[in-house]
């Protein structure tokens, strides 16, 4: 009888030991799975951080490229405008020459000399206006932004309603913006609206929003970007404004 009880006890001991080992094995397995899950979470978090950093770098590169493109387009427009102004000046000079020759053929004596003195003054004004603007714009293209800003301010002081006053106002704002003079740049870009026929209106409005963004007036910036889209829906500035709004949404601002 004792032998039977001993055998049963031995069997029970073996079963208990097996159950204990199984429980220990399950516990160890759960800890290992939990550790693996934690390591996976860490790797995912690291990858997400790298992706977000890469996206921010890409966004900065896109914005820099857009700024460079805007500058290049401005330079092209300036070159076209200057070419047209030069052609117009040549046409005016030829017309004046024809008029003088006609007067001489009609025997008007000293009249050409008298009229020549009167005609010389506008030519001098035109040359000075073009020179002041040209020097300022050359400084802008060369990256001498402080000098460019002074040049555009000089032009606007001498020729506030000159043929390039709207462009001078716009580029003054760009020179100030690049120097992080955002309050001054904001006023300059807003000043472009004083020239209702200017081709710079859409770009200037976009830059008003950029100034407001840099000044952390995010609500105002959003409103300005929306106004660019509604006022100039087909413009390149409208497309850029939509991108700026998406950026504000991403930043929850």
What are the main properties of this structure?
single chain, 253 residues, Serine Threonine Protein Phosphatase 5, Tetratricopeptide repeat, 0% strand
Kindly report the oligomeric state of this protein.
single chain
The proportion of residues forming helix, as a percent range, comes to over 70%
Q: Strand-and-helix sequence, N→C?
A: HHHHHHHH
Biggest β-sheet: count, sense, barrel? none
CATH class descriptor name of the domain at 74-198 = Mainly Alpha
Form type: elongated
Radius of gyration: 37 Å
Distance between the termini: 85 Å
What's the average pLDDT? 78
Structural class: mainly alpha
SSE topology sketch:
Blueprint (H helix, E strand, L loop, with lengths): L1 H104 L5 H31 L3 H14 L6 H14 L3 H10 L9 H14 L3 H14 L4 H15 L3
Helix pairs in contact: 1-2, 2-3, 3-4, 4-5, 5-6, 6-7, 6-8, 7-8
Q: How would you summarize what this structure contains?
A:
85% of the residues lie in helices and 0% in strands. The radius of gyration is 37 Å and the shape is elongated. About 12% of the residues have low confidence.
Overall description:
With 253 residues, the chain is mainly α. Among the domains are: 7-56; 74-198, Tetratricopeptide repeat domain (Serine Threonine Protein Phosphatase 5, Tetratricopeptide repeat, Alpha Horseshoe). Helices cover 85% and strands 0% of the residues. Helix 1 packs antiparallel against helix 2 (111-141) and helix 2 runs antiparallel to helix 3 (145-158).
